[in-house]
From TrEMBL:
Protein name per its UniProtKB record: EGF-like domain-containing protein
Pfam families tied to this protein: D8C_UMOD, EGF_CA
Domain EGF-like: 1-39, 41-81
Disulfide bond entries: 10-27, 29-38
Keyword Signal on entry: yes
Keywords: Disulfide bond, EGF-like domain, Repeat, Signal
PANTHER family per record: PA14 DOMAIN-CONTAINING PROTEIN, UROMODULIN-LIKE
Superkingdom of origin organism: Eukaryota
SUPFAM superfamilies per UniProt: EGF/Laminin, Growth factor receptor domain
Molecular-function GO term, any one: calcium ion binding
Amino acid sequence: VKNVCIKKPCPSNAICQAGFSSEGYRCACVPGYTGEYCTVDVDECDLGEHKCNSNAECINTRGSYDCECKEGFTGDGQTCIADGCYNHTNLTEANRKSDYSTPQFGPSLCDSELEGWYRFVGAAGTKMPTTRVSAYRCGTDWSGWLDGVHPTVGDGEVSRKVCFSDRQTGCRYERNIFVKNCGSYFIYSLVSLSCSSRYCGTE
């Protein structure tokens, strides 16, 4: 039996399949096209036949589609993660500043429930200090400061170590966090701490 598909009887947007009809072949449209001659573009976005993330915009193209994460999200369009520069919580407490002395008989505060992206603003300062903060500052016993430099915008998200001071050593213990430069301010992906420890702010 002669394979008529050798003569390539189908249009460019179709695949020839031998058999299936009296002509000895049929033309199956490639994904993204439909119609008698496979020239009609399938709008996957309108039909909901796409793999774009719910936080992405589907953009129809001829024969296919593109996914673009919406503002406030980053990724390839099929995976979109909230950008901390747009989605963060502000830390505003004045007693979080590195020059705030913890009252001798007052309560010692702790960041036992902080998870996610945070920004220092207002009375709390504008960023985390990068030089050692003495113990019993920032409204807590073990004061947290960034052991490293702040990143540039081009650095993206960087891993940094936060040290928590006691009176004897420079670093009673450490925690790894992520830091990002959003252009005019910094954000920090913080992890919860045991009591009594807290992240400090400064100007």
